């Protein structure tokens, strides 16, 4: 199975996204976060991702006669490389982008649903939620520099570990020619 085919399934993409930020979760914890996914379906897709090396088992323990595994994302295995992306057809790119946008919308919907139950309701500023577009005039060299700047900023913060007042935040990027 190609990496794009593996990762761009809606359930598998949500599992990958749930584990972003160096999280380690059991399948039961994943199911609590993805409660709309039937347990059997979730277990099957976790197995596919683990079998492909995208998830690694970081702990096991016996629970009521079965083995409960804790999984962590193998970050390098959880992306479509430039070579594979270059070989994808226009339709495959449309499907991949549609899956990405659908997962982003689902994350946004979960925030809206959770925020509705919090005193003060929806408050993007309080919760650090934002979405915007900007138009930049950049030649290829300037654009490459922008990408490297963004990578450096994200890379430095991706090393942060959970704790204190830190909240896991999802950052999605899309770059398109205008």
Features:
3 strands; mainly alpha; 3-stranded antiparallel beta sheet; 178 residues; Arc Repressor Mutant, subunit A; 8 helices
Summarize the structure.
The protein has 178 residues and is mainly alpha-helical.
Main CATH class: Mainly Alpha
Question: What is the CATH topology?
Answer: Arc Repressor Mutant, subunit A
Architecture, CATH level 2? Orthogonal Bundle
User: Structural class from helices and strands?
Assistant: mainly alpha
The largest β sheet comes out as: 3 strands, antiparallel
Strand order of the largest sheet: 1-3-2
Give the tally of structural domains. 1
Low-confidence stretches: none
Reading the helices and strands in chain order gives: HHEHHEEHHHH
Span between termini: 33 Å
C-alpha geometry = globular
| Mean of all residue-level pLDDT scores | 90
What's the helical proportion of residues?
40-55%
Count, helices? 8
Question: For this structure, what is the CATH homologous superfamily?
Answer: Winged helix-like DNA-binding domain superfamily/Winged helix DNA-binding domain
Strand content: 5-15%
Radius of gyration: 18 Å
| Number of DSSP-assigned strands | 3
Set down the secondary structure blueprint:
Blueprint: H1 3-7, H2 10-19, E1 24-26, H3 27-33, H4 39-51, E2 55-63, E3 66-73, H5 82-87, H6 90-116, H7 124-127, H8 140-158
Antiparallel strand pairs: 1-3, 2-3
Helix pairs in contact: 3-4
């Amino acid at each position: 199975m190609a990496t794009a085919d593996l990762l761009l399934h809606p359930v598998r993409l949500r599992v990958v996204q749930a584990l972003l930020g160096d999280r380690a979760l059991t399948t039961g914890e994943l199911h609590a976060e993805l409660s709309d996914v039937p347990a059997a379906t979730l277990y099957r897709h976790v197995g596919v991702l683990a079998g492909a090396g995208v998830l690694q088992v970081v702990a096991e323990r016996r629970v009521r006669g079965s083995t409960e595994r804790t999984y962590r994302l193998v970050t390098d295995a959880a992306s479509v490389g430039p070579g594979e992306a270059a070989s994808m057809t226009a339709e495959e790119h449309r499907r991949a982008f549609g899956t990405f946008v659908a997962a982003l919308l689902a994350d946004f919907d979960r925030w809206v649903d959770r925020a509705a139950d919090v005193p003060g309701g929806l408050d993007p500023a309080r919760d650090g939620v934002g979405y915007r577009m900007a138009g930049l005039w950049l030649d290829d060299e300037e654009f490459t520099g922008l990408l490297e700047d963004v990578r450096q900023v994200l890379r430095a913060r991706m090393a942060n570990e959970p704790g204190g007042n830190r909240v896991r935040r999802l950052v999605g990027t899309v770059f398109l020619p205008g």
